[in-house]
Model the fold of this input.
Amino acid sequence: MRKGLSADLISRVLGGAPKYTLAELEAKYPPRDLPDGAFVTRFAPSPTGYMHIGGVYQALIDYKLAQQSGGVFMLRIEDTDTKREVKDAVKVIEDSMHRFGFEYDDKEQYGPYFQSERKDIYHSIAADLLARGLAYPCFLTAEEMEKIRENQKAAGFPTGIYGEFARDRDISEEEIVRHLDAGEVPSIRLYSMGNPENKIFCKDAVRGSIGFPENNEDIVLIKSNDGLPTYHFAHLCDDHFMRTTHVVRGEEWLPSFPLHTQLFRMMGWQQPLYIHTATIDKIDPETGKQRKLSKRHDPEANVVFFLADGWPVKAIIDYLGNIAASGYEEAKVKGQVKSFWDFELRPKKIPMSGVLFDMKKLEWWAKEYIGTLPVDELVKYVRDWANEYDAQWAARIAISPEYLKNILAIERDNPKRIRKDFITWKQTLQEVSYFWDDLYVPNAEYEFNKDVLNAFLENFDICDDKDAWWAKIVEIANRFGVKNGDVAMNLRVALSGRTNTPDLYSIMQVMGKDRVIGRIKDIING
Ligand code: GLU
Done:
């Protein structure tokens, strides 16, 4: 600890008098009135204009822990790095939260939830630390720090501002005044009392207690260029005064864990419990090795990739949910739970490493999910997707939404036979595209038996029920000495261009008399 600064000097150092005392902040943001065991979580992205699938994974864990415990889930926008700010980035984040149904607290009692609007809070806490000699103004310039760094490197010391290298650590009030009079704006640094020879134990909900060397770096709390806090300081202030009980964040924050624990202990505040999530990996198609999903190289790192491709958000939730809570798939298959929201997510079981993003597995969840959707819902999702991402499909559907519904109703609503051929909304439309005349592609390879097709047309009656229709096919097969299936295949390929389709009778019923006759005639005459 060093000598604390006077109130006047603190105001000068911070560019204004602090708005609150710590006691006032405690009163303004009191402990939450929630049932025992309720989790208070937050998703805290930086607005970089991009929503990483790993962010969705974290937000899902956050939301689920709050939801299943009757707690609160917050969305906190960490916009203190003004250089990295991207226009509309907050919209991208909020939009993802809505799409996935991660409804966050909007009562603002513990807000504001934009860090850039919380400067008064950070400065008030910094003022308290300055007064108690736990922080100090540092006037080192970028060049001076670079020099220190070079010298440290040359001498083989760890780099950073600590101990003897922290020039202003014990700066006197007179010197501070001199710097301020010269127009210099300081950063506010922690006066670290940690000693790397000692160990500090940090509690992670998944990994248990982890021992680290104590932190001795005088890290920056408030930046000199914009007066905004660093992540470390903002995390301390916000997660205390937002009364966060569980911090779910990426494992890249593990090295900062001792520092954060030090900060909470210094304040005498109860530290939240941490869940450091593993990074999401993929198998590199070139090397065959497992590596982190890269924002720069892997389109599937961006959640927009999945949305634009029409992956059902519920399938993504199921898939990511099963990664976080590994027993979920089994419970779902056994019918013990209906959805991820009914399955308990236990923090202890969240994987620490080796989280592999497997498209094949996501496909499985998507097929299961779409397979059980009632036709009206399926139509709605497919239509919503087209309206947003594919104008041509949207226009086609708008002409006759009923047609789409009849198509998608084929072999649906039969609990005994769940169709598993639909994976995404986009691919669903591609699967059934042959129903539209402008998308139907006649099969040029198939060798049609034109006698069979002619015979079918002679007796075709769209009003036949399925038995009567089938009897006619059997009759044609007998007449021409071919198998029933051959007759059906000729018709199937003539109507769809494909050798594999759902129920042929239903296809004809949905296509209607004129289309069926027209397509078969075209093949005969072609
Ligand atoms: N803004 C930080 C990040 O995006 C948040 C980490 C945290 O959740 O505390 O990594």
User: Anything to note?
Assistant: The pocket of glutamic acid is lined by residues 44-46, 78, 235, 247, 249-250 (CB under 6 Å).
